[in-house]
């Protein structure tokens, strides 16, 4: 993940949330993936991204992905660190133990509000930097992305000041939530030359036109997150299948993954071969 972050181009990190979506992402050729707190909250608890999940939920979910990822690194949502600097360190260590390669840590007050909702409250920059420093000095080896939600609360200038503070505290990259336009990204890039930037391409922020990869790379962007796009696509397909079964008694009109492709994703042929091998009775 550090190599990707230090490279000259843009890497897209799609959201994954179970072993099968992880396997699909690997087969699509992605060199890194993302694990969203909103996705885990929705799938594990059926609840919105309003502080219901904890780092333990994210780490447990991450651990289930690792065999399917085969070494493809995961950048995981660490929310606010789930408390004070000591709690943030515990979260980072739990993530590292689960096999996560990097995390992003934000500067909202705990428990935070979803990044796309009004009414967000920010921690004092010094208090937020203390969490960044604690995680950076914890020795986990995780890539540390410092996220600030200041852009929509106190403006771009304050967001840039906060980014500098977090970089001084040990962050490897910065993520200015809500900033995706050329002018704002150019301002951040000019103020923080050489610093890898992370941007969020989430459906929660609407469908505004997005810059192409060449322009994003010029502006210092190295990671583009797509936290919930696959989840929303899957739910759309499931909704269509349920509606077809309810209306017609069959899902035949709905596009579906072929059964052989499904059994391939769960590696059924290999499992059957092993079962047969270990079931053999010695002569």
From TrEMBL:
Protein name as catalogued: Isocitrate lyase/PEP mutase family protein
UniProt cross-references to Pfam families, sorted A to Z: PEP_mutase
Alphabetically ordered keywords of this record: Lyase
InterPro entries (alphabetical): ICL/PEPM, Isocitrate_lyase_ph_CS, Pyrv/PenolPyrv_kinase-like_dom, Pyrv_kinase-like_dom_sf
Gene Ontology molecular-function annotations: oxo-acid-lyase activity
């Amino acid at each position: 993940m550090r190599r990707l972050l230090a490279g000259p181009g843009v890497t897209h990190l799609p959201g994954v949330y179970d072993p099968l979506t992880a396997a699909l992402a690997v087969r699509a050729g992605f060199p890194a993936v993302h694990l969203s707190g909103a996705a885990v909250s929705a799938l594990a608890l059926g609840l919105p991204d309003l502080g219901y999940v904890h780092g333990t939920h994210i780490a447990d979910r991450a651990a289930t992905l690792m065999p399917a990822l085969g070494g493809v690194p995961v950048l995981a949502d660490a929310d606010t660190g789930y408390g004070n600097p000591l709690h943030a360190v515990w979260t980072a260590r739990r993530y590292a133990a689960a096999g996560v390669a990097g995390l992003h840590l934000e500067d909202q007050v705990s428990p935070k509000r979803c990044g796309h909702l009004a009414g967000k409250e920010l921690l004092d920059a010094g208090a937020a930097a203390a969490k960044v420093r604690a995680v950076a000095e914890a020795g986990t080896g995780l890539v540390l992305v410092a996220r600030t939600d200041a852009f929509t609360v106190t403006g771009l200038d304050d967001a840039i000041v906060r980014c500098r503070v977090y970089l001084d505290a040990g962050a490897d990259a910065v993520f200015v939530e809500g900033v995706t336009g050329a002018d704002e990204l150019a301002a951040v890039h000019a103020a923080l030359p050489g610093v890898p930037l992370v941007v969020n391409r989430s459906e929660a922020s609407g469908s505004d036109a997005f810059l192409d990869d060449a322009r994003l790379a010029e502006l210092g962007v190295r990671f583009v997150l797509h936290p919930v796009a696959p989840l929303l696509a899957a739910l759309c397909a499931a909704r269509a299948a349920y509606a077809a079964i309810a209306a017609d008694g069959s899902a035949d009109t709905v596009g579906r993954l072929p059964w052989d492709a499904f059994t391939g994703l769960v590696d059924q042929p290999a499992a059957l071969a092993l079962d047969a091998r270990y079931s053999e009775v010695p002569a």
